[in-house]
Amino acid sequence: MAGRGLRLKRWLARAGSSGLRRLVAAALVLVSALLLSAVPRPARAFGEEGAWNPRPLLTGNARWEGVRATAPARWSFELERRTSAPARRNPTTVRADDPALLAEPFALWGGEGDLPPLTEREVFGLRRFLALGGVLFVDDFAPGSGAFGRAARRELARVLPEGSPIPIGTENVVFRSFYLLPRAVGRVEGPQKLSAIVRGGMPQVIFSDHDLAGALARSDGGGSSVDVTPGGEAQRERAFRLAVNIAMYVLCSNYKDDQVHAPFLMRRRAIDDARPRSVPALPGAP
Q1: What is the value of pTM for the model shown?
Q2: Cα–chain-centroid distance for residue 178?
Q3: What is the mean pLDDT of the chain?
């Protein structure tokens, strides 16, 4: 390409007519503009900083508070500790009708009761978020009643009328993105599988009837906020692993098809499996 530009300049220098010189100069400018327009530019994408940010999603008059308020920070902490992936230690909430929802690729929508209908602005915001490739994790904090899960499915049917949740299990990348998981668990054991609205072959809205946030939550003293049943701390560890898998799925998408990552991830998993199962305190905890 540089050689062609040099030949054009030599031709311009040899041209005897000022009119011809002006004509050739204009052609040179046009060619240069066309070449510049063909140069690939970096696409603007979700979360350009690349850090895991498990933002709680708020709709209506909901507030993020109570015993599960520490779950997003714990999620980030466990991801960094186990994988060395970067993560935001203090995730902040985001509202469904806030343009800031589009700035990151993940949101956690959790609750334990019925939901008021989404506003049109909230429906539009969530539709844009998902159209841009965002992943929404819907976590029922009270799966025994299932009120939140049913309401969230009802409202998301307005957001994505063409999509219906289907069960996903060990065959899906979410169960294999870092740990090889035999089933889904959270604060409660729940069903073996998650459910998901799959778009383009990838889960984009993931439903959990397990209260994953309850298993992640920490008390002010550094212990666990909510008891895990029926499997106790062994089940909590499996819930941590599911949380790590979801984060790695969001960060890396279908990275399992890219073998460049495999040696690094296998080493990280081997190191983590060899660690004692005691849970370290979060930064700043007594």
Answers
A1: 0.74
A2: 14
A3: 80
